[in-house]
Amino acid sequence: MHFNRRSLFGATAAAAGTAFAGREAEAKLPKGTDVEPRGTNGILERLPTLDLESNEEFLMSFRMWVNGPLNRAAMRRANEIIKAKGRDPKAEMDMAEAVELLKDDPTIAVRNHTWSRCQQLTFNNLRREFHGSYDAYMTEMEAADNAGPGTLELNPDMKMPDYARHEYHTQPGGYVGDPFAGHMYHYLTNNFNEGRNDQDELHRRMANALVLPADGKLKRVLDLGCGIGRQTIALKQRFPDAEVWGIDFGGPLVRYAHVRAVDMGVDVNFAQRLGEDSKFPDNHFDVITSYIIHHEVPAEISRKILKEVARILRPGGHYYPIDFYTTGSQPPRDPYGKLRSWVSHRWVHEPWMLQYGVLDFEGAARDAGLEVGKAGTSGFGGRPNTILTKPA
Ligand SMILES: C[S@@+](CC[C@H](N)C(=O)[O-])C[C@H]1O[C@@H](n2cnc3c(N)ncnc32)[C@H](O)[C@@H]1O
Asked: Which atom of ligand 1 is nearest to the CA of 189?
C-alpha cells in the first residue's frame, strides 16, 4: 500500500475521531474552479503549499507556547510586581494604573509582543498566498456566487458604518476591506483555536446545544454576524428541514461562507446585511444565534441589534447571543487581567471590547423587550449561556 503525506493526514483525522470521514458530499463547485491543490483533511481544505502549511503549524505551536508557559510566567511577574507595591494581585485595579505598573516589565512585554507578532505573521503569510493566487481564488468565488443549493446576496453599495471599518484582530483590510477576508479569517482562527476547530467542532457543539422554543416549532433560523458561516452550516445540519440564514456586514466573509456551503452541498442562505438593519419581516425567525459579535460593535449598536432581534423573532422564539460575558464569566478585575484587556483593545485591535465589558447586556435585552434566562451551553467552558426569549 502506498502512503503519501495526504493519505497519512486523512488517516490521522479519522483516527482522531473527527465527525467527518471526508467531505459530506462530493464537491459541488462548478467544474474546474475548486482550488484545493492538496486536497482536504475532513472538511478543511489544506493550505495549498507544504511551505505555507509548515509555517502555519510552526506559528500555531508558537502561539500555544505563548498562551501557556509564557503567559503563566508573565502572570507570575505581574503578581510579584503588584505585591512589591504592597497591593493585592487579586483585587480590582483601575486599568490605567495596571497598565502603568505592568507594561514595561520584560517578561510581560515579551508575552504581549510575541502574541501580536504571531498574529501578524500568520495574517501576512495568508494574505501573501491568497493575493499571490488572486485569479484562482477569485474565479472560485465568482463561479460559486450563483451556484446552489443555497443562495448568496451581496450588497456592495450598502453604506458601511464607520464602526465596521477597523482592522479587527490586526486582519489586513478587516472584515470589509479585502476580497479574501473570509479566507484569511478562516485559517487565522483555526490557528487561534490551536487546531481544535479545524472541523468546525466548536460551532457544531454550539449548534447542537441550542434549546428549542417551548412549543418545539422551528421553521426558520438566523445566524447573525455569521462570518464564514461555520455555525450557520452546523445549524442546517442539525435542522435539515428549517430555512437557515446567515447575515454579516462583511461581503467577503459571506461570499467565502457561500463557497464553503456550495462545496459541502449544504442548503443555506447568506446575505451581506447589518445585524441592526436585517431587512427581515417582523416575527420571522424561531431561533436566532450569534457568536462573538457583541464585543465587536459599539455598545449603542449592541442595543440596536437587540431591538432588531426583538422585532424579527417570533413570540416565544429564542435568541442565543454567545459572547465572552453571556457565559457566566465577567470582565477581568485584577491588574494582570486589566492589562490583558488593554493589550487586546490597543494592540490586537479590539476597538469596541472595552465598551462591551461595561455594557449591562441583560439590562439592554430587557429594554429591547426580551426576557432573560439561562440555557444550553456555550463554546466557553460548557457553562449555561444567556438565552433571550420574545414574550409569547
Ligand atoms: C468574531 S467574528 C465571528 C464570526 C462568526 N460568528 C464565527 O463564529 O466565526 C464577528 C463577526 O460579526 C460580524 N459583525 C459584527 N457586527 C456586525 C453587525 N452589526 N452586523 C452584521 N455583522 C456584524 C463581523 O463581520 C464578523 O464576521
From this structure: 9
